[in-house]
Amino acid sequence: MPAPGRVYVLRIWHESGEQPTGPVWRAMIREGTLGERRYFARVDECLDHLYSELVRR
């Protein structure tokens, strides 16, 4: 019997505001449709978080 899966909502957007380093990508992830939203200043941070969640369970 396969292990139950999980659903994550991942949103990535581009901000071109007044950043000294130029435009940046931001990210938000949420488990399922009702889970707590977590925001990340960098996409790499979001992917690290997602990887740690998948390894932990």
UniProtKB/TrEMBL annotation:
Domain of life: Bacteria
Protein name: Uncharacterized protein
Taxonomic source organism: Deinococcus multiflagellatus
